[in-house]
From TrEMBL:
This is Acyltransferase family protein. Residues 1-53 are annotated as: Disordered. Residues 26-48 have a biased composition (Low complexity). GO terms for molecular function: acyltransferase activity. Residues 60-363 form the Acyltransferase domain. It holds the Pfam family Acyl_transf_3. InterPro entries: Acyl_transf_3_dom, Nod_factor_acetyltransferase. It comes from Streptomyces kunmingensis. Keywords: Acyltransferase, Membrane, Transferase, Transmembrane, Transmembrane helix. The chain crosses the membrane at residues 91-112, 124-143, 155-173, 185-203, 209-226, 238-257, 277-302, 309-327, 347-367.
Length: 397
């Protein structure tokens, strides 16, 4: 049907307004990056509190959760050299590794719900995930060759080193998002994939596919979570119930510390590669998934809902994640943990505080501005102009 005032299409229908996008960290995009139509409906207070608010407005809860999760990541890395001589450090290490990355990945999935194969989103995936992966893989390789005293350490984009596995995983998970949206039972299928991966030693180390597949259920779960699910775990009774659950988890971790290897929590090896029978992969995958979901819910229950002094740092968590890796590995290369005082209780507390402070600084806006060229490059020169944007520019008065 044509407009009666302008028959035969002599005047074009105005193009829709350009979508306003805001700066986001690739580990967990801000609510502003998702169009309102792609956000699950919520009503009243739940909508205002769970990230379904006005476009361009960040939700303090998710920024707080991302910041606290990255602090736990940094503390876990500083505890790793202490685990050999301290049962308490090993217990805390296993406890934190049960939920810190699952929490991060669930949030990543939650804010990937609107991802499709639209050109602008593919460009953001390349500039915000693929390019940082390449740059940091090069930087980590050079760092290990120089500071690590391994001049023959090979450079390979197929073999992520240390922290860069998460960028590979995020790239793969986001690309498969449209697939999970069309199948009937996405979470059970993702869980089946994780279980099969845990008993498949032939997968190998390329692209850290074991981690990609074994952590997959958390991302898919996040894809199908709604604001009311986060409201549910933030209820007062859940916070109260989480206290004895966390206490019991710490006791269980202290008991398990000398009896099992913490390698199960990395999800980077099959059961056979860990010296266990194949069926142990099935049992451990399901058991760890359950433990991770429970402790992640406890973590979310205690994340502040209001704006805090560290809320602004939630937008820079990927900066802190990747940059603190140089210090985490450098501390081993340079023998910082060889000092006896570090292994004393007061030394372990001091190291923990230092790790939290360092990663906090690395998430700050000044650090983001310095390293934005590597983490969020625009790279407009590398992409073709979008036809819609060109048409909009021509019609702009």
């Amino acid at each position: 049907m044509t407009n009666s005032l302008y028959p035969h299409g002599s005047r074009r229908t105005p193009l829709p307004p350009a979508a306003v996008t805001s700066l986001q960290d690739t580990a967990a995009p801000s609510p502003a990056s998702a169009p309102a139509a792609a956000t699950p409906p919520a009503t009243g207070q739940a909508s205002a509190r769970a990230g379904a608010g006005k476009p361009g407005q960040r939700d303090a809860f998710f920024d707080n959760a991302k910041y606290l999760a990255i602090v736990f990541v940094a503390m876990g890395h500083c505890w790793e050299p202490l685990t050999d001589g301290s049962r308490s450090a090993e217990a805390l290490y296993m406890f934190v590794y049960t939920f810190h990355m699952p929490a991060f990945i669930i949030i990543s999935g939650y804010f990937s719900r609107s991802f499709d194969m639209r050109p602008d989103r593919l460009r953001r995936l390349i500039t915000g995930v693929a390019v940082p992966y390449i740059l940091f893989e090069i930087a980590y390789t050079l760092f290990k060759r120089t500071a690590g005293g391994d001049p023959d350490h090979p450079f390979s984009l197929l073999d992520p080193w240390f922290l860069t596995w998460f960028l590979v995983a995020l790239f793969v998970w986001r690309l498969t998002t449209p697939l999970w949206k069309i199948i009937r039972w996405p979470v059970p299928v993702a869980l089946a994939v994780a279980v099969l991966a845990s008993v498949s030693p032939d997968i190998g180390d390329d692209l850290d596919l074991q981690r990609v597949l074994q952590f997959l259920p958390f991302f898919v779960l996040g894809l199908f979570m709604k604001p009311e699910h986060f409201q549910l775990v933030r209820r007062r009774e859940v916070r109260i119930l989480s206290v004895p659950i966390v206490a019991a988890a710490l006791v269980l971790a202290y008991w398990a510390a000398p009896r099992m290897t913490s390698a199960w929590f990395y999800h980077r090896d099959s059961a056979q590669e860990l010296g266990a029978p194949w069926w142990a992969g099935v049992v451990m995958t399901l058991a760890l998934l359950g433990c991770s979901l429970v402790l992640t819910a406890c973590f979310f229950a205690w994340v502040p809902r209001r704006k805090m002094w560290f809320t602004v740092l939630g937008a820079g968590t990927l900066y802190g994640y990747l940059l603190h890796g140089f210090l985490a590995k450098g501390s081993r290369f340079w023998g910082w943990f060889d000092a006896d005082w570090v292994h004393e209780p007061y030394g372990q507390i001091a190291v923990t505080v230092i790790a939290a402070a360092v990663v906090t600084v690395l998430c700050t806006p000044p650090v983001q501005r310095i390293f934005r060229f590597a983490m969020e490059p625009k790279m407009e020169w590398a992409f073709k102009k979008d036809a819609t944007q060109l048409a909009r520019a021509r019609n702009r008065p």
